[in-house]
Specification:
By secondary structure, this protein is mostly helical. Helix content is 66%, strand content 0%.
Amino acid sequence: MRADGEDPQGAAREIRAALSAAADPDRAARQRAYLRSDLHHLGVAVPDMRRAVTRTRRGLGARPAPCVLALAAELWSVPDGAGRTVYEYRWAAVELLVQYARALDAAHLPAVEALLRECRTWALVDPLAVHCAGAVALRDPAAGEALDRWAADPDFWLRRTALLALLPAIRAGRPDTARLTRYADALVDEREFFIRKALGWVLRELSTRDPGFVLDWLGRHGTRVAPLTRKEALRRLPAPAQDRTAPPARADPPA
């Protein structure tokens, strides 16, 4: 069946049918336990999920942003026949937005933000952050306003998104070091694991292109940098460079 771009319900049914056909209960149990998920899982493998979305996307062809967002919302919000919220339906919505990222611009990030606030797992947040929001930010400078707001949001998943959305520009050789400096300086004292990890990940990506920036930032903040962030940031740098940023040893207390 060829999906109709003006009928998001029909296109969503097509994707859901393909996902149901690829369900694996054993994988579903493992996946749910691994993600500590409270959603219903079908146990669809990554290649099968991507094939299901890609098949429908090819049938749709090029679509304007409103059609893409309507289909993503249909996948995201409609439960299965038993009234359950299905992880794979939401995963398919994320994959759809990733595949159609070029149809979006900064004006569409509020719709992406609404989904991010309901993700509650890195498995859905990270692809939206890097390959959707980050892809938009790489093309549209106006996206910076949303990223800046997310970087200070009480929801740590939004703060993580703001950091990870900087990755496409780094990988394209156009890192926004001014924005990264602002975010990293503001988040250096974070206690949340997923922020510490994301900050180290972004610094690690930048380290192969601009090691001086990473080493200077680590040296400037010293012992304030969480060990996890420091370890990730230095992972791709040689040992001599890592030694330059080692925090000073703690002095022994007086006898």
